[in-house]
Amino acid sequence: GGVSGTTRGNPPPTFSSPFAQTDLTRADILKIVASASLEKDARVNLSGARLAGLDLGGLDLGNTVLDRADLRNANVKGTSFAGASLRKANLTGVKTDRDTSFKACVHPSPPR
Questions:
Q1: Assign residue 107 a region: left if phi > 0, alpha if psi is -120 to 50, beta otherwise?
Q2: Alpha-carbon distance 46 to 16, whole Å?
């Protein structure tokens, strides 16, 4: 018989979010960010979300937690990640411009 009920290699709890391994659309993100902005000092936790190839251009994702998020080939032209957390996020092929802000970002891995 196999061992049941045990899982190995779970990520630390700081990386868990309701959107982990979830494919989100631009509209989803706008809704999530808007609802969080109603709560004082709320940080939007999008850890582990799948945002590959999305058009996130011009969005304010400041103070958002995007740890381990998949942002491959996303358009982030004019997007603000000021104060956001991007630990272990995948930023391969991300399209940035001079208006993209990573100011005071936590551990941004520079796009390769």
A1: left
A2: 9
Nearest to 84 by CA among 73, 99, 69: 69
Q: How far apart are CA 95 and CA 55, in angstroms?
A: 10
**65, 60, 61, 64: which is closest to 16 by C-alpha?**
65
How far is residue 2's CA from residue 100's CA, in Å, rounded to a whole number? 50
Report the alpha-carbon distance of residue 36 to residue 96 in Å, rounded.
Answer: 25
pLDDT value of position 55? 97
pTM: predicted TM-score of the whole model, two decimal places = 0.78
- Tens of pLDDT along 25-69? 999 999 998 888 777 777 899 999 999 999 999 999 999 999 999
Report d(CA 97, CA 28) in Å as an integer.
23
